[in-house]
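To close the section, here is one more complete example, presented without commentary so you can practise reading it yourself. The ligand is S-adenosyl-L-homocysteine.
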Amino acid sequence: MATMQNDSEPVDPRIDLVGMDRDDLKGVTDALGEPAYRSRQLYQWIYQRGVTDFAEMHNLSKATRAKLDETYRIGRPAVGTAQQSVDGTRKWLLGFADGNLAETVFIPEEPRGTLCVSSQVGCTLTCSFCHTGTQRLVRNLEASEIVGQIMLARDALDAWPAAAVNRPLTNIVMMGMGEPLYNFENVKKALSIVIDDEGLAMSRRRVTLSTSGIVPEIRRCGREIGCMLAISLHAVHDELRDELVPINRKYKIAELMDACRDYSTLSNARRITFEYVMLKGVNDSLAEARELVRLMSDIPSKVNLIPFNPWPGSVYECSSNNAIDRFASLLRDAGCVATVRSPRGQDIMAACGQLKSASVRQRRSAAAE
Ligand code: SAH
Ligand code: SF4
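Output:
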């Protein structure tokens, strides 16, 4: 397990190339007086091959490699702890240069392997059932820190080169900590590298951004990012959604549904996923299932029911298996595609909504020492 940089380790002053897109790298090679095609070679070495040492870039001259090495580095987020669940789920707690921490989770589900990526340290929204929402400390992650999570997972999974077949990492979900649409520019830049064939080479159809429903940014996401979309709906009436997902006070369900309708018509491959956390006695009645069917009726979509994952201090309980089955059956009988997410990595607090950066916990314990 790598350790985070501590005070005794000298900080590498060189500029990190990870997170730079094609244009940024062109700026780098221009500044070094190198021809334009060098930036493309550099881009491929970094994102397709996962190389972290300029010495390995054998189609670059020794002199170019030396110039690069002087000013630049190809970094990875430092890993504080790496945990593995009994079910194979892996979680990395990452430490960034400013001491902030965020989490990345890998969920192997043959034949798929999904990486759940964080977009912020904490989250400014305060959904009442979500552990991340209780974290006060919030900052946007840089594009380098977002792409870095995926590159680090590829290192750990031995999943280079990016475009290889049979690779263990097939899907990316922006469902870790944070609201990705509140960090639009950095998420957009990171995902542009993720879905670039000469970059991390993931299929756009296998990259899903999950949002609590920031309506104007959903429209922008459709135009400018073009990945798959998941909406954290969780309630079918405004009154309850105002309470569970407080951003609903600003963007109501009807408005959200309009944005989803528009998003899905941008491309007919764009089936939207509605996520619905199952909270006992709160949102799990059959009347609510019926209303969900009605809301989705003219939107190409599917529902993913998420059994509530408890966390210390949470006030909700998960619906019974029976209630979840009945809810799912009603949806399916009405012709909807409905899946129930199996909770993964609960023993290492890696399940949906359980991520809360240990920055807060660690700081507290450091203060207590
Ligand atoms: N902020 C974004 C993405 C991160 S949350 C969003 O809200 O969509 C990823 C998913 O986990 C969301 O659907 C969220 O509502 C759900 N979630 C949060 N807390 C949960 C919990 N305790 N149990 C189950 N799912 C939860
Ligand atoms: Fe933030 Fe999403 Fe958690 Fe809501 S569910 S607090 S938007 S991370």
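Once you have examined the tokens, check your reading against these statements. The chain has two domains: 16-73, 78-362. The chain has eleven helices and 14 strands.
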